[in-house]
Amino acid sequence: MRNILIIFCSLFPLSGLLANPQNPVKKPNIVWIVCEDMSPHLGSYGEKVAKTPVLDQLAKEAVRYTQVYSTAGVCAPSRCAIITGNYQTAIGGQNMRTLGLSANALDDYPKGLKPYSAVIPAGVKCFSEYLRMAGYYCTNNAKQDYQFEAPVTAWDESSKKAHWRKRPDKSQPFFSVFNIETTHESQVWLREKQPLLVNPKDVMVPPFYPDDSVSRKTMARFLTNVMVMDQQVGEIINQLKEDGLYEESIIFFYSDHGDGMPFVKRELSQRGLKVPLLIKAPNLPKGKVDNQLISFVDFGPTVLSLAGVTLPKTIHGQAFLGNQKAKAKRQYIYAARDRMDSEYDRVRAVSDGRFKYIRNYMPEKSYYQNIKYRLQNPLMLHMLALKNAGKLNETQMKWFRPTKALEELFDTQNDPHEFNNLANNPTYKDKLVELRGKHLAWIKQYGDLGAKPELEMIKEWWNGQDNPPITEKSSVSIANGTVQLSCPTAGASIGFRKNSKETWQVYTKPFSLNNGDSLYVMSHRIGFVPTEIRLKN
Description:
Helix content is 21%, strand content 20%. By secondary structure, it is an alpha+beta fold. The protein has a domain at 30-83 and 124-329: Alkaline Phosphatase, subunit A. The strands form four sheets. It has an eight-stranded mixed beta sheet with strand order 5-4-6-2-7-8-3-9, sandwiched between helices. The protein has a five-stranded antiparallel beta sheet with strand order 1-20-19-16-17. β16 (493-497) and β17 (505-506) form a beta hairpin. It starts with a strand and ends with a strand. Mean pLDDT is 94; it is low at 1-23.
């Protein structure tokens, strides 16, 4: 007799779809080094004040991409797009944020809203799950912030200790992500007592800030954090070199969106969306500059392409490297702004790399949002005090305009701060019509859940109930020591392990089980509550 214990858990795993078979060719190791809240403040991109020798050296050995854009000006929606290869607006990850809200923080969010995991479409997976199916050891150190709880099938390990060095078989290819939080918005105030590496007198103050001691000191703190981050990147690179893996590994360095500064983060301006991207690989030219348009939805498919894993049909992005590189380069990038903490807005953008079209679906609302989290930034408080005293000039007051135009069009080459709206200029009518059409076609092709009230969207996901649906338990069939698993919930991933200390494996095909072995099975549709079964053979 087998004793079966069914356990309902509140974790959040993925789904089990077999990618292509193992490729006999040696698969490349891939490392992502991700910093937060940083526009291209690297010497290789023209930064004059912050010194970034480690990343400047990496740029000499890598391809430097100059037209790379987040799908949002804030982290969680953009990370949702990265991990799935799907536009966050199409799969319900558009609102900032959905998880990790404490009881106190809920006071700063819309009434009636409680933490939830986005119920993304059944066929959409974390792209790392496909890598694991293809034999990769996948680690994430450590931030996720995907707008849903990552399934146990997404990573071999996701923690502050996760590292490629922990893989049991040193010949196994790996995909390892390292998230560096040093440049995050919060570090401007949390690190304010640490020594500055940048002289405030040397800072270049943009015209939308007052040029005074507060602006200069705050920016010097942020640029100091950039310099510290550069040193931390060096530590990861040195570990690759110590392991003899640096030359053969593919290394990505990028930021999750633009600077974590007022009137930059959370915006759909170039400064909010445009990020650095360096990619070093054995077969890529050193020191090359690549100006093709790249969106965050392209990152996942590009990694799968480099790893030789067949691209799922559910992915919205396109590979720009590898054996499945798209035949045509991207012509447009798309981005969205939805709820930011307590404040609702709906803004959409499309750009051809030079001209940016913005559609404000709530033009009656101000550009500025009173976001409590941001009020911890000394520059934000300073600007509000100057505003209330009538001491901001016309340019600095642009952020605080009480309403927005329905449509905006900017020439980001000649107007990098996007202050001169060309939407009503007849000279640019054709470009306005072109980009407006691309925006509408994008919504038609992928859908836009931002058009639906958030609470109504959640209610539909949860079938009108107060809690999310539960993934059905997997059925377990054991014959002659061979185990077959299946889950009746559409889109559910299945993870399994043979003792409670093992890493969860992605179920793709029948496997063997010996007499006396235990078996743990986790079934999970993203956004549903997962279900675990424990079985003693």
